[in-house]
Specification:
The protein is α/β, with parallel strands linked by helices. The protein has helices spanning 48-55, 78-88, 104-112, 121-127, 143-155, 173-190, and strands at residues 4-17, 20-33, 37-41, 63-68, 71-72, 89-92, 161-165, 193-198, 209-214, 217-223.
């Protein structure tokens, strides 16, 4: 049986603004497994990004527990969460968050300089098909290329998990397929547990596991016996 990489028990998240309360998560209990390509699927506001941020150590839960392997994330101090993010987690967001004044190689090197056992920036960029763009600046690259630089930066520290929040949300279908292909190859070649948030139902077909969200909770979990390649996704 596959190793659990994350599991949660009754995770609740409430945001408060004055007297107004917004319940982003309502008692989520879930299990995610090592080495899998997992899709968190649901409409905007369904809670999937909030859960991803808690699993990534970027946000805290109002109640409940979350674990990374045997480490309880919800009991960690800020210092411990910082170390956890540094040593174990790679992040990819919808908007690339590249430094405009740095080349692709230099953007990736920002991570390799603080990681314990990093790849060389050139290796990380080669893995996402950008060996020919090492010395180009973000403004000289397409949106899909910039997103692949962001993926290279995330994987360069050899994280255990890669957390991706709408990585194709700002891209057209052709470019989105290139990004998904890069993510799938990282999952296959490095065994990196990859969790992708999307509202695009077509992407579910390439996942090992699909976790459907609705109204702040998990509504359904599906395991795919047969997966499709990114280029065969119906957008």
């Amino acid at each position: 049986m596959a190793e659990r990489v994350f599991h949660t028990n009754g995770i609740t998240k409430v945001y408060r603004t004055g007297e107004i309360e917004v319940h982003a998560l309502r008692g989520v209990t879930a299990e995610l497994y090592a080495g899998e390509f997992t899709v968190l699927l649901g409409a905007s506001g369904s809670g999937k990004s909030t859960l991803l941020n808690i699993l990534g150590g970027l946000d805290s839960a109002t109640a409940g527990q979350a674990w990374f392997r045997d480490f309880e994330l919800t009991a960690m101090s800020e210092r411990e969460l910082t170390r956890y993010r540094r040593d174990h987690v790679g992040f990819v967001f919808q908007f690339y968050n590249l430094v405009p004044s740095l080349t692709a190689r230099e953007n990736v090197a920002l991570v390799t300089e603080i990681a314990k056992h990093p790849m060389k920036p050139e290796e990380a960029l080669e893995r996402v098909g950008l060996s020919h763009r090492l010395d180009h600046f973000p403004a000289e690259m397409s949106g899909g290329e910039q997103q692949r630089v962001a993926i290279a930066r995330a994987i360069a520290k050899r994280p255990d998990v890669l957390l991706c929040d709408e990585p194709t949300g700002a891209l057209d279908s052709h470019t989105g397929v290139q990004v998904l292909d890069a993510l799938e190859r990282i999952n296959d070649e490095l065994g990196t547990s990859t969790i992708v948030i999307t509202h695009n139902a077509g992407i579910r077909a390439m996942a090992h596991r699909v976790v459907q969200f609705a109204d702040g909770n998990v509504s359904e979990v599906t395991v795919n016996d047969t997966r499709v390649a990114p280029q065969d996704i119906v957008w």
